[in-house]
Amino acid sequence: MTPHIEAEPGQIADLVLFPGDPLRAKRIAEEILEEAVPYNTVRNMLGFTGMATLPDGRRVRVSVQGSGMGMPSLSIYANELFDRFGVQTLIRVGTCGALQEHLHSGDLVIAQGGSSDSNLNRRRFKGLDFAPLPDPNLFVSAVLAVRERGWQTAIGNVLSTDLFYQDHAPEEWKMWAEAGVLAVEMETAELYTLATLKGRRALSVLTVSDVIPTRESMSAEQRETCYGRMVEIALASAFAT
Fold first, then answer.
1. Can you give the three-state secondary structure of 70-94, one letter per residue?
2. Which of 21, 107, 135, 210 is catalytic?
3. Tens digit of pLDDT for each residue in 190-208?
4. Is 210 tagged catalytic?
5. Are 105 and 218 in contact (CB under 8 A)?
6. Is residue 2 a part of any domain in this protein?
7. Does residue 199 contact residue 112 with C-beta atoms inside 8 Å?
8. Is residue 5 part of a domain?
9. What is the pTM of this model?
10. CA nearest neighbour of 111 among 60, 168, 159
């Protein structure tokens, strides 16, 4: 048990799906996992463990845990999952805002790297810049999985920002778009950094909920329920043979 996760030893699987929204975690547990059992309700940051059936018939043990919004919140849960519960793989299944006009709501994005405007890594690395990357085997397996399924997917860099509302610099996103960054969200860079430092595996599989250049947008309900394909790719990459 930790200050934020009330699970007992052994209640959390080696693989944890890691949505920001705890209600999305609940829906994944109810609609995708079998025999799901809750292990955390602290601060309503819900966590569950159950069984998932892969396309080849294998049944695998999987947990799903809400991380909250932003890198500081994700950092708390990722640290505790890695250090106190021995989790080996964290796969973020979340939403993002597209920075490129060719993307549309509902498209998948696989994060090949995590740029950031945060000061977290500059504090860790004494003012130097660290390039957070996913686990290479998870990343390659995810790319192969989406190509096998023929799903519209963008693969590349994403921006993890500390600010959801950037009224002070409303056009700043264009700088990142011109550099080829695909989308903006609030967690991936910290997830990739922690996994690298702790020798664990991490990946971010995202769904576009908003397209900033065109103002295309999902509803709140769509954001909460747009997880099916992300979970399928997460499981395919985690349990690739």
1. CHHHHHHHHHHHHHHHCCCEEEEEE
2. 210
3. 999 999 999 999 999 999 9
4. yes
5. yes
6. no
7. no
8. no
9. 0.96
10. 159
